[in-house]
Structure formats: structure tokens, C-alpha cells
Amino acid sequence: MNILGIIPARYASTRFPGKPLVDINGKSMIQHVYEQALKAKSLTKVIVATDDWRIFDAVTAFGGNVAMTDTAHRSGTDRCNEVLKKSDLSFDAVINIQGDEPFIDPNQIDQLAKLIQENGVQIASLAKKITSSDELFNPNVVKIIFNTDQEAIYFSRHAIPYLRDIEQDEWINNFSFHKHLGIYAYRSDILKQITQLSVSTLEKAESLEQLRWLENGFKIKIGITTIENIAIDTPNDLQKLINNCAK
Questions:
Q1: Residue 243 banded pLDDT, cuts 50, 70, 90
Q2: What is the band of 194 on the pLDDT scale with cuts at 50, 70, 90?
Q3: How far apart are CA 87 and CA 127, in angstroms?
Q4: Are 222 and 126 within 8 A, CB to CB?
Q5: Are residues 233 and 15 in contact, defined by beta-carbon separation less than 8 angstroms?
Q6: Would the pLDDT of 108 be above 60?
Q7: For the chain, how many structural domains are there in total?
Q8: For 151, which DSSP code?
Q9: What CATH number did the domain enclosing 234 receive?
Q10: DSSP letter for each residue of 17-30
């Protein structure tokens, strides 16, 4: 299967403008992500999808593949679809790789690639067990529940499921909660379909685009990982990462 790895990278971030170009040990964040993606054995090609010439020029400078995309896109999924449509090559699937995880493990990309090649899988993503109450009740950590076929039932910023008759500070000890990792694999035909959908009511409520897909009957296969990636959402996150690297 030919699989295209795409790294969406926007310059205009509300919490951290210019985030893809910040320096981490002598390389930009986007270069770190790109080089990690290249280590994945499953990807036919890797390309950065951006809407800013500063990022475009930076990727070109380190020899990476990069494409300019529309500034009006609401999500990385839409940006991935534009790159796929413009590609001169044919790809069976696309993996949407987060541009703010500079040390993403290539094994997770390969795990997703394996999932999307399973018969009948439309979309695939990853989840990791939650190990602390801080994570469980943090609205910035997206929680997920899935069925016995490892298909997503629902995603929420709230802790799900609700544990009746158990004090909240004991929830973490009484159920295996999971958080969602924002990396996706899509079959190419499915990617085209989901980007044509209108914004849904659940998506508006939780501000989570994957709920639009579930509301419209698409299935999301979930793989479980034990690998913890570090996402950089704010300047403070970056400083913590730099401090850890220095140890």
C-alpha cells in the first residue's frame, strides 16, 4: 500500500505563533517532526503542508518536501486532503502527523499504517491509557471510549465514562480510561468524503472534528500505544522540553 505522510504546519497559532519554526537543539520543530516521520518504514513519501511562506522556505532549506495550501482550511484534515488532490502520485492512504510533536516515535506511524491496511478500516487513530487524575480531568486532554472491536464510540474533553457511586478522586483506580492521540490515518477515498461533511452538532459542542465523522457513520479503528509523545502547545511546553533535553 502506498501511504503518504503529511505534516500540517500553520504559522498562526493562537497560543504559540510561529511554533513550527522554534529552535530545539539547533533544528526547527518542523524539521524534527519531518526527520522522525522519515524513519517510519511504512511511508512512501513525507510532505509538510503549510499556509505560510516562512515555513515553506524553512522546509525547503533543510531539503524537505513541502506544499503550500489554502489559508482558509479549518483543520489539518482539510489541509491533508488538498495535498492529496494536488499530488502527481497515487496514494492508497494518508497519515496525518502532528506538527507539534518533535520527537514522535516512528513506530506509532507504522502502527497506524498497519491498522489502515486492515480489511474494512476507514480511519485509524491511537489511544493511550491515562495514568493520572490530572490528565483525566484536564479538558485539553481528549478522552476516548471504544467498543470490543476497538472502534471509537465517542471522544470527549470530559472524563468518560462517568463512574456512578465512586468518588471522582478514585475514578483513576477503578476504570481503564484512555486519552486520544491526535494522529490519524485515512483511506484516500474516505479522506475525500469526510472533508465534504458539514460541521456537526457534537463537533461544535466539544470542538473535536472527529465527532463529525462519527455522527455521519464513519468508523475509526483505535490502536493502543504505550508510547508517550510530548506535544508543544505553548512556550512553556517548549521550555520544559528544552530543560529535559539538557538533563
A1: low
A2: very high
A3: 30
A4: yes
A5: yes
A6: yes
A7: 1
A8: B
A9: 3.90.550.10
A10: TTGGG-EETTEEHH
